[in-house]
Amino acid sequence: MSSEVDAESADLECELDNVQGMVDALSSVRWKRHQDAVIELSEHGIVLVVEESSCVQAKVYLQKELFVRYEYSAQARVRFGVSLGLFVDSLNTFSRPAHSSTIEIRYPGPDMQLLLRSVDSLDACIYAEIRTRIPETISWDYNFEPAGSTPLSFTVKSAALKEAIDDLEWPGSSIQVSLQPAPPVVTFRGEGHGDLQIDFMYYANTDLLTAFHCDREESHRYKYKFLRATTSNIPSSVIKENRGSKLTIGRGGMLKVQHLVSVAKQSNSHSHADSAGYLQPSRIAYIEFFVKPEVDDDNAND
């Protein structure tokens, strides 16, 4: 093997000590069986982008601080396309208890592959090559801007958000998301064979709706399948930790949904937490979804 030559030509070499955390983060944006993703590499870390029909876009931010080693030598950002399913399935091989180890990620290989290799396994070295390609399109610019001087946002427990959206399922339908300041409430309303409405009252359920910022009434509709994509694959680790998911409505009704996924090494994850049990930012992967609203209603805002 010409590992020395490969190492010299690599734009990125990094090592990660919690593969399962990375699997959880990437699985959270895998809402279809077959999905293409664009990976962007830089000196700051790795960003993975998935989108569909220019209506929903998801980004996974893996900052360089998540890695035990991160060496980037390219002069500019590097972008390439990859099968998200193949990437996650390959990582899953390294995350199984029998083979759990630190992995090295390197790009590019001799034929522009994404290379994965276990580096501290006592039994055997696991190795994977993932074919990459030139992205066919440039990711659409979501251009997320605040909808006025006061951000319209709320933070709700991730498990409650997922349950609410699952309960609102009407195939092919839309979900109306409304915020109003007095009384402070967030309403999810679905229409299908009947109407179903779920209210999150801010003061009544402070343990459920943990933050609320709204100074005016606002309402937008979103295609159910795109709204569901934001929660359908939230990893069980996030549900168990009962983290909060933050939703923000921007200019024109653009919806941003943010989740946090722990990538702390599980065997000593307590060492990355403070006395209150909050994980350090350096051990968190940031997940963002952007969902465009339906614009065929009369109350769509410009």
Automatic annotation (TrEMBL):
Record's keyword terms, sorted: DNA damage, DNA repair, Nucleus
GO cellular component: checkpoint clamp complex
Subcellular location per the Swiss-Prot or TrEMBL entry: Nucleus
Listed GO biological process terms: DNA damage checkpoint signaling; DNA repair
Pfam family, one: Rad1
DNA damage among keywords: yes
Keyword Nucleus: yes
Domain of life from the UniProt record: Eukaryota
InterPro entries in alphabetical order: Cell_cycle_checkpoint_Rad1, DNA_clamp_sf, Rad1_Rec1_Rad17
Family affiliation: Belongs to the rad1 family.
Protein name per UniProt: Uncharacterized protein
Lineage start: Eukaryota, Viridiplantae, Streptophyta, Embryophyta, Tracheophyta
